[in-house]
Specification:
heterotrimer, A: mainly alpha, three-stranded antiparallel sheet, 8 strands, B: alpha/beta, Beta Polymerase, domain 2, two-stranded parallel ribbon, 10 helices, globular
Chain lengths: ~400, ~260, ~325
């Protein structure tokens, strides 16, 4: 006697009590058609990279509807900012997005500097660019490995981590940490790069270029991978615009929007590099854009290491830990690895910022998913999810 | 491609209460428009038609109410614009949703709903996004009585490039706008002090009957419809609200048109 | 003495051989786990297991011990009988499949006249086990994996049969020993050269039939977590694991027998040649697993129905015509 029907995976949803779920799955199930399967991907699932949860309504293996559920890693960074001094909130920035800590460092530091009118010295600007670009490469590498892992190839992620190890070693010398880096200070950076730091970078650049060739031969030109990516999950410019998607998503959609070029912050206007814009807006376009960005970032790092001037790394009379932000508001965008990182600081001149809004690119990018994944096969939906380059702590903040 | 001046004019047409032009070097914003809730959708539609994208929504708690700031940026050119709406009623803060124009706003609005309890009318799925849905917790972000700041005292929105007469969020030591101030003062100030939070709502109510009628109908119907239905109503009410706003301050007409 | 046509002696031989085959399967699983780990480590530029025993050789045995000692977690509302039947059903039929395999000239459990039919008939049991496992474990991932397992297994069995049939046509016998004998000692007389299409088709289908990457859709880790065996832990999982490696071993032996000359080699015919060839094929399976991404399910079926099946039919037809002419 089978009791299989007792808790039916094919639960008929219009029968009350047959579907047992939490608030979000019940909320999602309200609009589901009877007879379809509602599948919970996550929060513990191999391809949701952390604790994202996606509820999908399946007809066979076709995704009819989906809804990402967030908040499993919400740590109230924004509320924390209101209880710390502006300076004391700096370490949090390394923890918002663990793969792109420097990008967040930059956004928050620069937002406060903009409000207070502080100009970091020349050498600090170069060090910032070097750190940010290396961090972008590291982030893209991890994305690349994890994305190809989503497509079922296990080996590339270990190659990617092998290369990322170099970047961790390099950045460790100046930031003191390998993951949750806290490098930027108001008016400069925390530490100067020593000779070993620069020689490691000079060693790393040609090595990484060789590796990129190998990755192209091994992974990018693989016919199975191409078939899994090409034509899957097209996202046009209008879709990106409506959802506020930024970063590689819009560049894959053919919009040459990169904050480094459109609003050259820091000293990005002094370097010679391109913004890769993909002619195709599918998964492969996003893949290609990120792979190209690695080589463009290498160019920037190469130039920055050549040209870095001697000098101070932090302004004189740099803000102390008890420094108070002047009253007012400040919005500052930087181009993170995942898109436009934006920090909105509101200050009333008190001990701590009055309100800090962290605009996570992944948050807006993920909101595209429900529309992009509609009507695809489950495996393609997973591929689209991977192509968005999600880092859950950043999305949940 | 619209210049900042053209945007200033566009927001004015959309029914803005005030348009300020913050110092870009210091704030990173080129233009900021303070809108009454009912003209938000019109302004957002205008921004969408010009290829702007919603970057994020910041809600901040002030003694005047919850100030909801929408920051937009264009895909083709760099121009960061902010729309601001004050949800004045602290007990029941309500702002119209723009999720039918910018679908990405849905999540940002839900986040504000989580943190501050601001209700975005017309949001297709206004349930908690970062907080648990089945075990609701009170919104954690509103400030305590000691910590709360005032938009006016802080001069947070800055000097208005243009404002309706008696704009209740004008910075307090308003020096350059001195000629507008004395006119607004005798009629407006006592009312503003008596119930600063309710004011925009209280003023809008008698004027816009069509809007008031449209709202309950909108809530009963599916998510897409109210936007289309509310639009003419919102336009009309915005147009009607202006003379109503001007009325108590007779001297403020030069600011109105 | 004879019991219904089988002598007591051959009955004893069969029993002993079956025990040896069981031992082989278990030892093979231990060896292959080690080879797979070291191999993937080599491919991925990392050491692989090196802590337990010399060069990490005892790692697989330790893992087996761990799996034995683990709690057998049974989720709520499973179909109890089918849930426990499935892993056993996955493992046991593989035993019967080894009966006709000629490991060496004299090292054959039973020289079955229709050995091919026996192998192909019993191969379907693994599929049934996967279906039952997915169905009984009361899990949506499981049921999706089971559905995939069945449609994939059924689909890929056909070109596999047709590929083997081409060799059978050529040899004129279904007896595996005779197929080996028909191939000469020299490598250029082996079937993979005169049946290249069949060999290629068989190589593709053997990966799909054993549910190994890039055709591991029933387990499809990135979307279905673990597919049909999501809810199995401890020994339930271990049996599926064992069955997977036993299946790999079987298809590799069949490949060696049909296409690579079986126990025949350039020098000194014997069972060692069968093992060398079979393990070379196994290494091939391991190698592609750690190199390729996974195909999508509709692509998987398209490869089969649109390419492999017509190709295998064509190959069979050509073989038939050539044999008729020659």
């Amino acid at each position: 006697m089978s009791n299989f029907t007792f808790l039916n995976p094919f639960a008929v949803l219009d029968e009350p009590g047959t579907y047992m779920g939490d608030f979000f799955s019940n909320n999602f199930a309200k609009k589901a058609q009877a007879g379809n399967v509602i599948l919970n991907l996550g929060p513990q699932h191999p391809s949701t990279h952390g604790v994202l949860r996606v509820i999908v309504e399946l007809y066979g293996e076709y995704v009819l509807r989906s809804e990402p559920i967030l908040g499993y890693l919400h740590r109230s960074h924004e509320k924390m900012a209101e209880h710390k001094t502006a300076y004391g909130f700096l370490p949090n920035m390394g923890r918002v997005d663990y793969l792109n800590a420097i990008g967040w460092n930059w956004a928050y530091t620069a937002a406060c500097e903009q409000l207070a009118g502080i100009e970091p010295p020349e050498r600090a600007e170069y060090l910032r660019v070097i750190a940010a670009e290396l961090n972008r490469i590291a982030s893209h590498l991890v994305w690349w490995g994890a994305f190809v892992l989503d497509l079922g190839a296990f080996t590339p992620i270990l190659y990617a981590f092998d290369d990322r190890e170099w970047i961790c070693d390099i950045l460790q010398r100046v930031t003191g940490s390998r993951l949750t880096m806290n490098y930027f200070r108001f008016g400069g950076v925390g530490a100067d790069g020593d000779d070993r730091f620069f020689s490691l970078i000079r060693e790393f650049i040609p090595l990484m270029r060789e590796r990129l060739k190998m990755y192209k031969a091994l992974v990018t030109d693989n016919v199975i991978l191409r078939r899994r990516l090409e034509g899957i999950g097209p996202m046009d410019a209008d879709l990106c615009l409506r959802y506020g998607a930024t970063g590689p998503l819009v560049r894959a959609a053919g919009v040459p929007r990169d904050v480094r070029k459109s609003v050259p912050y820091g000293i990005y206007d002094r370097f010679d590099y391109n913004i890769p814009v993909s002619p195709v807006n599918d998964n492969f376009g996003r893949y290609w854009v990120r792979m190209e960005e690695i080589s463009e970032s290498l160019k920037i790092v190469e130039q920055a290491v050549e040209r870095i001037p001697p000098g101070k790394i932090i302004v004189d009379k740099a803000p102390k830990p008890a420094w108070k932000l002047p009253p007012g508001e400040s919005v500052y965008s930087v181009e993170g690895a995942r898109g436009e990182i934006c920090v909105h600081v509101i200050s009333d001149g008190g001990k701590s910022p009055y309100r800090v809004k962290l605009r996570a690119p992944g948050f807006s990018n993920l909101s595209v998913f429900a529309e992009a994944a509609q009507g695809t096969i489950l495996a393609d939906a997973i591929a689209i999810l991977g192509s968005l380059d999600l880092v859950i702590p950043e999305i949940d903040r | 491609m619209m210049t900042t001046d053209a945007w200033s004019e566009a927001f004015r047409e959309a029914g803005a209460l005030a348009v300020t032009r913050p110092d870009y070097k210091r704030t990173g914003l080129e233009l900021s428009a303070h809108l009454p809730p009912e003209s938000l959708i019109k302004a957002a539609e205008r921004l969408y038609s010009e290829g702007f994208s919603l970057l994020f929504i910041t809600t901040a708690d002030f003694s005047e109410g919850f100030l909801v700031t929408y920051v937009f940026d264009s895909f083709t050119e760099h121009k960061r614009l902010a729309l601001r709406v004050l949800a004045g009623d602290r007990k029941d803060p309500r702002v119209p949703s723009i999720a039918h124009i910018f679908q990405g706003a849905e999540w940002h609005e839900r986040e504000s709903y989580d943190f501050y309890g601001v209700i975005f009318e017309g949001n297709p799925n206004l349930v908690p996004i970062l907080f648990p849905g089945d075990d609701p917790i009170p919104p954690p972000h509103p400030k305590s009585q000691e910590a709360i700041a005032s938009i006016r005292k802080l001069g947070f929105l800055g000097e208005a490039e243009w404002a309706v007469a008696g704009w209740e969020l004008a910075p307090e030591p308003a020096k350059p706008a001195a000629e507008a101030k004395p006119a607004a003062k005798p009629a407006d100030k006592p009312a503003a002090e008596a119930k600063p939070a309710d004011k925009p709502v209280a003023e809008a109510k008698p004027a816009d009957k069509p809007a008031a009628e449209a709202k309950p109908a909108a809530e009963a119907k599916p998510a897409d419809k109210p936007a289309a239905e509310a639009k003419p109503a919102a336009d009309k009410s915005a147009a009607e609200a202006k003379p109503a706003a001007d009325k108590p301050a007779d001297g403020g007409k030069e600011g109105g048109k | 003495m004879e019991i219904s046509g089988i002598s007591i002696l051959s009955l004893v031989t069969i029993i002993v051989a079956c025990l040896l085959v069981i031992a082989l399967m278990v030892v093979n699983a231990l060896v292959m786990v080690y080879v797979e780990r070291k191999g993937s480590g080599f491919i991925q530029r990392r050491p692989g297991p090196y802590e337990v025993g010399p060069w990490g050789t005892i790692q697989a045995a330790c893992d087996a011990m761990k799996l034995l000692a683990k709690e057998l977690f049974v989720p709520a509302n499973v179909d109890f009988f089918l849930y426990f039947l499935a892993p056993v059903l996955a493992f046991l039929p593989v035993l019967a499949l080894f009966i006709p395999i000629p490991f060496g000239p004299f090292l054959t459990t039973l020289k079955v006249p229709d050995g091919v039919v026996l192998i192909l008939a019993f191969a379907g049991f693994g599929l049934l086990a996967n279906l039952l496992a997915g169905y009984a474990s009361n899990n949506k991932y499981g049921i999706l994996g089971a559905g995939r397992a069945v449609s994939q297994g059924v689909a890929y069995e056909i070109p596999m049969i047709l590929a083997l049939l081409a060799v059978v046509f050529q040899t004129g016998s279904m007896n595996l020993s005779e197929i080996v004998e028909a191939q000469g000692s020299a490598p250029w007389r082996w079937n993979f050269l005169c049946q290249p299409i069949a060999f290629f088709i068989y190589l593709v289908t053997l990966v799909a039939e054993t549910n190994r990457a890039p055709f591991d859709l029933p387990e499809g880790e990135s979307e279905l977590t673990a597919g049909f065996h999501t809810e199995y832990s401890g020994m339930g999982f271990a049996l599926f694991f064992l069955a997977e490696y036993a299946n790999m071993l079987l298809v590799s032996f069949v490949c060696a027998t049909f296409f690579l000359g079986g126990y025949k080699g350039p020098i000194l015919d014997g069972f060692w040649w069968t093992f060398i060839k079979a393990y070379a094929v196994m290494w091939f399976i391991v190698w592609i697993r750690w190199t390729f991404p996974r195909v999508r399910f509709d692509q998987l079926l398209n490869i089969n129905w649109k390419w492999l099946l017509p190709l295998s039919i064509l190959n069979l037809w050509i073989t038939a015509v050539v044999i008729k002419i020659v």
